Amino acid sequence: MERLLDLALSAILLAGLYATMAYGLGLIYGTLRVVNLAHGGVIMAGAYLGWTLHEGFGVDPYLTIPVVAVAAFGLGVLMYQLLVRRLPRGPAGGPASLLLLFGVWLVLRNIAYLIFTGNDQTIRTAYSSRSLAILGSHVSVNRLVVLGIAVVIAVAMHVLLKHTQLGRAIRAVAQNADSCTLVGIDVNRIYTLTFGIGSALAGVAGVLLATLFSFSPNAGASELLKSFVVVVLGGLGSVFGISVAALIVATAEVFAILILPSYLTTAVGFLLLVLVLILRPGGLFGYRVLS
Amino acid sequence: MATNFRSSLVVLSLAALASVGACKPKAAKQEDRTEILIGATLPLTGAEARIGGFFKEGYELAFDEVNQAGGLEVGGKKLPVKLSLNDDTSTQATAVSLADKLINRDKVDFLLGTYSTSLVEAQSTVAEQNKVPYVNGGGAASEIYKRGYKYIFGALSPVELLGGTLMSWIDEQQQAGKLGKPAKIALLWENTAHGKDFRKGVSDFVAKSAGGYELVIDESFELNGKDFSALLGKVKAAGAEIFLADAHLPDYITLHRQYIDAGLCHKVVSYGARGSEKAAIEALGSENASYVLSGVWWSAQLADSLPLAKKFVDAFKAKFGGRSPEWFQALGYESARALFTAIKQAGSLDREAVRAKLATLKMESLLPGGTLEFPADKGNEVQNLFVVQQNLPNQNAPIIYPKDVAKVAGIAPNPRCASTPTPTPTP
Q: Which among B13, B48, B27 has a CA at the least distance from the CA of B349?
């Protein structure tokens, strides 16, 4: 029983991490229909910026989040305005956007190699190895914070999309960009802001990852893949779906240890992805256009 | 018409033959040579850039020493040695194509190896196909040396020996009554050739221990893992006394952080070759990394017991601003020195003659044990012992084993566990 409780807690904490990584990817795909392969690169860049502020200026890593979010937002806006905007909208721009954004990722990675070298870095604070006893299990303070931030982001996204003018415009553009143009919505502006917000979320995910794991310029690949699994499973463009899918993937991976060798447990998420694509191609929660 | 066609064919064939002859590399005669050209690639950029830089320092020191002494004596005259070093960017494909370029375009005489098992494994095939002696200090997995290759020589002892050396120290603690009998071991290993070798070293020792040890967890994990909490939950439930893992640096940091988070503590804790790195201690905090054991191929502390190690450490510090070398630089230096010794003994730049000398080489060394040889029955991979270090709260990691080079006696059981109870098995 104690072991099952341990595993359940691990799954919830891991879900927080997966959801944080996936929100940005889901938002950009849901609105622009662009799979942002630079997502991993922005996560890595966010980790390095958080680390630089922490190491260089002694700022607590969680207090660097607003700065990193603004910087990553700017990076996203630049990426959209300079590159993505020039691609054909919709499915016609699909393959080109994949190649383009993959290229951006490689550029970001190599810039990081030039500036920071390939050394592994970590963020360590006074509370890095502190844990709390919850129902007899030890739970890392950092992981609890990451879970809390994941919940805050989900709520903020919900409020933004449901209760603000910008959110309504984003949802409208996601449904039908051409009609939005007819009613006077500046689609290009909405796309720019969405790409910026998606990138800001990726940057925040980078800081959170850096508080938990060591990272190098190579970071971001496994995060991108995991985000992709969560987004597809949850239904492309669904914030609620992403949160639930993160919990499903994390639970499946964590509980798989009971029947599978450890090295196979990460494959469970990808197996789920294949099953969902075969049985329910729209994801578990269907395509909801950023509900 | 047919005659003309046949004549054309003959002319074309002769032209082709002539061109082949012209393209054949023209090796300068030994007496005309003005230098010995040795090729190498290292990961100077990319994921392994830091370690690649360390190996470069080792190579540079070895080349400087030989050239300052006037070069290597070959065929009655001294020739300087020149290193043609390329950046393989930490990728297999680049390492392979650069090795091919070094051999067939730059016409190097011999090759020194790159760093990391996967790169050495791929690159050594090019050397073998071209019959060029290839001496490396960066590939330890025994798989590399089990392919029947004749031209590869490895200065890194196999990781199997690392597992065995750690277990030998643990066995001494058990004999002294500091560990239970049988002692339960939780063994985690990365799912790579490196990890499999480590596992073999430990499990072979356990099998020979006649009931002295019991492997209660024997699990592999994926490289660059992010979440080990479920796996550590399994470790916690098994109630082991000894926790052994084989991991690369990022996984060591992630795994040990989560180990601490989970409130785990074992009487003996080791992450194979990892543990004493400054970067890891900074990332984990010395209070969390204390008493972790690590087995390394070489340590600067050997300077107190091996004259050659002292000479190397002094020369390294003089060249690199007083900085102390790690095992990476030592292995780079020693690989180059082994190749130079074989060239000198062969008295020739003939690749076959140098290969034969490498195969029978037995030289004084800065490695643990004090001698270096490439035993043919081990695929030309050295079999020197590892040295075991233990992190102390003062951030030092003195050698604790083998006894002849130990600085202090190792500490077991882990004093950290006094404040963290040893996990008891849960059903």
A: B27
